[in-house]
Amino acid sequence: AAGVIQSPRHLIKEKRETATLKCYPIPRHDTVYWYQQGPGQDPQFLISFYEKMQSDKGSIPDRFSAQQFSDYHSELNMSSLELGDSALYFCASSLARVATDYGYTFGSGTRLTVV
Amino acid sequence: GEDVEQSLFLSVREGDSSVINCTYTDSSSTYLYWYKQEPGAGLQLLTYIFSNMDMKQDQRLTVLLNKKDKHLSLRIADTQTGDSAIYFCAVNSGGYNKLIFGAGTRLAVHP
């Protein structure tokens, strides 16, 4: 079965550079969530999109922006990168923003390292 | 705001049962999940419970929910070395169902 695809799997950037993370949800899923997991931390909700509109916002820095495109894939853009942005970034998708018994399907994550 | 708390570490002997506890604050959460994360890996959904249930059993996993006390537990029977991982409790929150995670419980299984 198709899963949530994230790219790239690994990314190394220097401070003050920009990075773009991509997420391709499960087909027919219209809601995408982004989470950030720092080293030894629990995943923190950043932002979500439902039907290409931002639906909820968490602890996302102003330096980050995201959008969901017409094909429902989403991109997280991160500018002026800081060392503290080094983390595992997860994307998850669901259908119609409804909590379900199968939970959210998470991608494998993008590991961003800022040097 | 919403909060989910877990004990950070649990050590058990192989073959014993493990019990991981979680408390949460958002009484409107309808789904409560347990995720497993192995080192360097993604989040694997283990099991869930709906808020109108008290208990759910799925093979070696038993989830207990005390909605009044907002307490959730995961019991792993006959714990194996392959169960060593970090276990996250998560609850859905808000109209668009973002997940709020606990800090994770690191389960160490020793012979």
Explain the layout of strands and helices.
The complex is a heterodimer of chains A (115) and B (111).
Chain A: E1 5-7, E2 10-13, E3 19-24, E4 31-37, E5 44-50, E6 53-57, E7 64-68, E8 74-78, E9 87-94, E10 105-106, E11 110-114
Parallel strand pairs in A: 2-11
Antiparallel strand pairs in A: 1-3, 3-8, 4-5, 4-9, 5-6, 7-8, 9-10, 9-11
Chain B: E1 4-6, E2 9-13, E3 18-24, E4 31-37, E5 44-50, E6 55-58, E7 61-66, E8 71-76, E9 85-93, E10 98-101, E11 105-110
Parallel strand pairs in B: 2-11
Antiparallel strand pairs in B: 1-3, 3-8, 4-5, 4-9, 6-7, 7-8, 9-10, 9-11
Any overview of this molecule?
The complex is a heterodimer of chains A (115) and B (111). In chain A, 0% of the residues lie in helices and 50% in strands. Chain A has no helices and eleven strands. In chain A, the strands form two sheets. In chain A, strands 2, 4, 5, 6, 9, 10 and 11 form a seven-stranded mixed beta sheet that branches. Chain B has 111 residues and is an all-beta fold. Helix content of chain B is 0%, strand content 58%. Chain B contains no helices and eleven strands. In chain B, the strands form two sheets. In chain B, strands 2, 4, 5, 9, 10 and 11 form a six-stranded mixed beta sheet that branches. Chain B starts with a strand and ends with a strand. The mean pLDDT of chain B is 93. Classes of the chains: A mainly beta (115), B mainly beta (111). Chains A and B meet through strand 4, strand 5, strand 9 and strand 10 of A and strand 4, strand 5 and strand 10 of B.
